[in-house]
Specification:
Shape: elongated
Structural class: mainly alpha
Distance between the termini: 21 Å
Number of strands: 0
Number of helices: 3
Keywords: Membrane, Transmembrane, Transmembrane helix
Largest sheet: none
Order of helices and strands: HHH
Length: 83
């Protein structure tokens, strides 16, 4: 529309630098700890691989679930997640 100034929706994570860095640091530390547990992986001790699979999946699902939940229709109408 010509001549109108509609407010664009904010992008995911915009204005949340500190919380994004804290979340990334915690989840990355968990993932690195799971990778470190592979030092004890042997054919007789498979628990380090189980730890890696569980923690890796949990980190992925937590990060996926805290993402933006706006629908395409809401974004197309110009609504932000704060409205």
């Amino acid at each position: 529309m010509v001549g109108t100034r509609s407010k664009q929706p904010t992008h995911s994570g915009e204005g949340h630098l500190v919380s994004n860095l804290i979340t990334f640091t915690v989840l990355f530390a968990l993932f690195c700890g799971a990778l470190y547990s592979l030092n004890w992986l042997t054919l007789g001790n498979v628990w380090p691989m189980a730890i890696l699979l569980v923690v890796g999946t949990a980190v992925y699902l937590v990060a996926f679930s805290i993402g933006r939940s706006d629908t395409t229709t809401e974004l197309a109408k110009g609504y932000s997640h704060n409205e």
